[in-house]
Amino acid sequence: MPGQDLPTPIAAYLRRRAVAAPWRITGQPAGAFRGAVVIPSLAESNNLPQTLRSLATNPTGFLSRFLLLVVVNQRGDASPGERADNGATLDLLPSWKREYGLEHLHWVDAASTGNELPPKQGVGLARKIGLDLALEHLDFAAADPLLVCLDADTVVQPDYLSAITGHFNETVAGGASIPYRHRPACDTAGQMAIDRYELFLRAYVLGLEQAGSPYAFHTVGSAMACRASAYAASGGMNRRLAGEDFYFLQQVHKVAGVAPLAGTIVHPSPRQSHRVPFGTGRAVGDMLAQGSERLLFYQPMLFEILGEWLQCAARSGGADGADLMNRAGGISSHLRGFLEQAGFSAAWDNLLRHNPDENRLMVSFHGWFDAFRTMRLLHHLSDSAWPRVPPEQAVKPLLERAACNGAADVGGLLERLRGLQGV
Fold first, then answer.
1. φ and ψ of 181, to 5 deg
2. Verdict on whether the full-model pTM lies above 0.90
């Protein structure tokens, strides 16, 4: 709680990197908590009650340990409808708190005049506001407390908080990717769109896993968590309008590791949305407007090239950047072209100078060749020589490599992949 002695790294983070006024938590949270669940909410008065109701199904013993923090937010250019909806949410939150028996539910007004988000800001800053404000209300005396990200249109299970708590009791990793499964859509077209998009996400992670990438974990904003120490060490949540989850977990992995969590599933909304330039809502909306063929998949060959490149780096044997560039050219001229554009040779030689230990060298390499550069490589290969293909052509070979039978359609492929990934 405010006034407690915080660990030095947390205090330093709050002093240097945390968001400033005018935002504050409404009401005074009672006590210090084992963790906090932060829920950004923009025009979600119809959906947020369902999220809160699902949280209320968790055992009281776990709910008593977690601060639940809703960040009602909008920018100054919000539509009249969004403004009215946020106003209704702020008015209704006290009654929802009573109705669902959520004693430790609090909220942040980032929507009223004077409290709105700055221009060109969105969900990244909304998450950051909640996570930063929660830090001072966490209990650092007994253990490293937890920060959990959820969304206002996402439903959780009764085992949600217990699974998260148990996971961090058993792992040394500072971050976690929580299993997810999108809820059913309201019509056939919507179901086809969300199935295809979730299949794309899962196929991408499977491909990374088969390539041996350390970034083979899901980055879904409503399904991630971390230790408070990892949050501060990674620089906190970024302020991106979209993709904040991807960049956040990438950074957490670099400083503390990210481990897949088991034992529960979160259920995001399948709805379309054009609030952000990319992501689930945008992809679903584009497919509904332009046809599902708009979303094509990476060819399996790309993950083979990625895997060979990662093995090349791991077995460098002290080779310098020029030698590794030649080896990369033997894998693919397009891979070499990408590495040349990225300045790999000089970067590798610099890593060699500063990391004489082989293990440290590989950690530093994966810090340079991170999730973002991995994705850029796949984009480059796809644009250069291996155009994207329909899911049936892309996913079946990945499943076969995992010794899992394929299926005839997107829905069947998705169920195979969900089973393979523990959902």
1. -155, 115
2. yes
Rounded distance between C-alpha atoms, residue 408 and residue 47, angstroms: 34
- Over the stretch 112-151, which tens digit does the pLDDT of each residue have? 999 999 998 999 999 999 999 999 999 999 899 999 999 9
Instruction: Tokens for 13, please give them.
Output: 């983070």
pLDDT tens-place string over residues 267-285:
999 866 555 555 566 677 6
**Is beta strand 35-41 parallel, antiparallel or unpaired with respect to 146-149?**
parallel
